[in-house]
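Write out the bound-state structure for flavin mononucleotide.
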Amino acid sequence: MKYLLSSQPQTIHFSLMENFKELIQRRRSMRKFTPELLKDDDVALLMRAALMSPSSHRSCDWNFILVDDKAKLQVISECRQNGAAHAADAPLAIVVLGDPTVTDCWVENASIAALMIQLQAEDLGLGSCWIQIRGRMAPDGTPSGEVLRELLDIPEGPEVLCVVVVGHKGMERKPFNEEHLQWEKVHINKW
Ligand SMILES: Cc1cc2nc3c(=O)[nH]c(=O)nc-3n(C[C@H](O)[C@H](O)[C@H](O)COP(=O)(O)O)c2cc1C
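---
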């Protein structure tokens, strides 16, 4: 892997979206990817978005592990009983960690960073999917996060919240249907 992560992306990025309204409607979970690899600049933009995330007291307790090694992607795809199989064919998995020894808001901080990655991916025309790790188990009962700790040499302290897989979209997904919005869940002044 040779991502140019210490510098700003070198090429000018043109957004594929008209606006943010369209972007959030078009972002759908993508579980099928083409074999095409990601460009260095696109990966740098994904990480730029993550590192710009808001965090409690600006604790910035997150860490991100970029995994493009096929054997490791295979292990990630099997670290949960269900719901992670698509990691095997993704060109990139971003393991998103927070640190409960730094802040009690680690889940919130890491969640926001994961979503920032997903939104930036969509803006680049890439597909992404959140794979939940916290609270999940491998088929043998080992916590999924511990499987990844051993696989990726994660030290004690940081915890894996999720893995965001990213790649070129391998199938069409319809944008979110406005008619399915649950407006009844929005309350005004009281429940
Ligand atoms: C906290 C969280 C956990 C999720 N876990 C998984 C997962 O483990 N595997 C998966 O394929 N999708 C997972 N997803 C994606 C959801 O299934 C998906 O966002 C939801 O079904 C709505 O579909 P959409 O993203 O296409 O709009 C997760 C999403 C969130 C926010």
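---
The two ends are 51 Å apart (CA to CA).
The chain has a mean pLDDT of 94.
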